[in-house]
Amino acid sequence: PLSRYPPLINDISFWLPSETYSQNDFYDLVRTIGGDLIEKVVLLDEFAHPKTKKVSHCYRIIYRHPERTLTQDEVQHIHRAIEESAVRELGVQGRF
Predict the structure, then answer these.
(1) What does each C-alpha distance from 79 to 23, 51, 52, 82, 90 come to in angstroms?
(2) Core vs surface per residue 56-81: b (16+ CB within 10 A) or e
(3) Domain of life here (predicted)?
(4) Which domains does the chain have, with CATH numbers?
(5) How far apart are CA 77 and CA 70, in angstroms?
């Protein structure tokens, strides 16, 4: 069932580590931290720097609560935890 409450959308972008990176690991990390508040995670953009050859991903995370309207302050705490965990656990370099 779809919620009648509005979504909150936040983007996150980071440089990928030189070693192996899996998008599924990022999706799992987001869902582990955000739980049922995560409605959708979408890869918006992939960018390769022409000089350094580093690759960056930008993801859109859509948050929505099924029973009430979320505030940006509530979501910001979760989003910050996702950023910090992505750096710590996946070895990415944040662009936030």
Answers:
(1) 17, 30, 28, 5, 16
(2) bbebebebbbeeeebeeeebeebbee
(3) Eukaryota
(4) 8-94 (3.30.70.380)
(5) 12
Q: Are 38 and 86 in contact (CB under 8 A)?
A: no
> Whole-prediction pTM value?
0.91
List, for residues 36-89, the tens digit of each pLDDT value.
999 999 999 999 999 999 999 999 999 999 889 999 999 999 999 999 999 999
Q: Which two tokens stand for residue 37?
A: 């508040």
DSSP character at residue 21 = -
State phi, psi for 70 to the nearest 5 degrees.
-85, 155
